[in-house]
Recover the amino acids of this structure.
């Protein structure tokens, strides 16, 4: 069972940037597709080897998800942040070679992001 720990949240002004990190342990990281969620919405997802990514329209062009399997870490680079991006960001993992369509089984504890106007 994979264990996930997020970090990198904080307070930033609108238009600023933050990079979130999620470190996985307890399992083979490359066996998992990874996603970032806020308020129940997936804001970014990536396949096990990074060959495919997903972004909803709300984050496309502003957020970038990436992963380093050697470091068991997935990242979320967030640029041009808006007050509407405020929330708790959760990292999630699903044992899948493709982007998950039925949800994620493993979740981190979350990290708070606050964007001030």
């Amino acid at each position: 069972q994979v264990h996930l720990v997020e970090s990198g949240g904080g307070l930033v002004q609108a238009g600023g940037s933050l990079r979130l990190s999620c470190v996985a342990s307890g399992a083979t990281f490359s066996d998992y597709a990874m996603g970032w969620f806020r308020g129940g919405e997936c804001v970014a997802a990536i396949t096990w080897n990074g060959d495919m990514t997903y972004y909803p329209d709300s984050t496309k062009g502003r957020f970038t998800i990436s992963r380093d399997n050697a470091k068991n870490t997935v990242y979320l680079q967030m640029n041009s942040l808006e007050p509407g991006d405020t929330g708790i960001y959760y990292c999630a993992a699903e044992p899948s070679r493709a982007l998950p369509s039925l949800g994620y089984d493993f979740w981190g504890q979350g990290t708070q992001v606050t964007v001030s106007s």
DSSP finds no helices and eleven strands in the chain.
